[in-house]
Specification:
The chain contains seven helices and four strands, in the order H-H-H-H-H-E-E-E-E-H-H. The protein is 48% helix and 16% strand. 10% of the residues are buried. Strand 3 and strand 4 form a beta hairpin. With 196 residues, the protein is of the alpha+beta class. It has a domain of 71 residues: Arc Repressor Mutant, subunit A, CATH 1.10.10.1400.
């Protein structure tokens, strides 16, 4: 069976090419625009505009065809997935910090200081990013309870352990491998001696 690959589109900038590559990984235009280096002031709008640009559409179709023809995922895809999980953090899905807001009393009136200026108070905030800005593959669960919204990330420790095992970073695995190799050498010698 002959594989037919459409010709690469040369009418793209480097950022547009990167956008296409990121887009076919998770089909999230906003995330693809941010990762490709477009300003994150209005990434959802930029992503939307890029998806409607004929040259970008053609490149995405070309890349999707390449992906379809490769059919199976490879080892690199699995390693990349675990790396994304292992090195994710809460800032991938939420923003938090301190902000100044007007001081409002119980009756809903804004408080004014003795100089006639609006009184400001500092408060902590936590807000979740819009779903279009988040890589959903990093999230295990989203739920709403009495205390508000809860987002549970995929297990980073599990991903780190898998990567450590894959890259043979666990000292116990190295010792086991050395032990297994030594046992194999002994078995080989035993077989050689039997042949004598």
């Amino acid at each position: 069976m002959q594989v037919v690959v459409p010709v690469q589109n040369d009418g793209l900038t480097e950022k547009q090419r990167l956008f296409c590559l990121y887009y076919i990984k998770n089909f999230n235009a906003t995330q693809a625009a941010i990762k490709a280096g477009f300003t994150d002031k209005y990434p959802s709008e930029i992503g939307y505009q890029l998806l409607h640009k004929p040259t970008v559409k053609a490149e995405i179709e070309r890349l999707k065809e390449l992906k379809r023809q490769s059919v199976m995922i490879n080892e690199d895809d699995i390693v990349e997935r675990y790396m994304r999980i292992a090195f994710s953090d809460i800032t991938d899905v939420a923003e938090f910090g301190t902000e100044e807001i007007p001081d409002i009393d119980n009756a809903g009136n804004m408080q004014i200081d003795h100089n006639g200026n609006l009184k400001m108070i500092k408060r902590n905030y936590l807000s979740f990013k819009n779903h279009a800005e988040v890589d959903g593959g990093l999230i295990c669960e989203v739920s709403m309870g009495r205390n508000g919204m809860k987002v549970k990330m995929e297990d980073r420790q599990k991903a780190l352990a898998w990567l450590a095992d894959y890259f043979n970073m666990d000292p116990m695995n190295k010792h086991k491998q050395q032990y297994d190799n030594a046992m194999l050498a002994i078995r080989k010698k035993e077989l050689e001696l039997k042949d004598w």
